[in-house]
Fold:
Amino acid sequence: MEDRVVCTCLDITYNTIKEAIENGAKTLDDIKDETEAGTICGMCEDEIQEILDELVK
Ligand code: FES
Structure:
């Protein structure tokens, strides 16, 4: 489900994370810089990492 919300603090969806990866993000910190996902409570960090593991080749 591409439009599922990954970061509930900021309402950031899987698609937004995926786009950041397509734009060159390769690490959790890159995602935080580009989307701000994971920068509030940090609960979504594991899920962001899973998406990175899945999409970053
Ligand atoms: S759910 Fe992503 S920072 Fe809180």
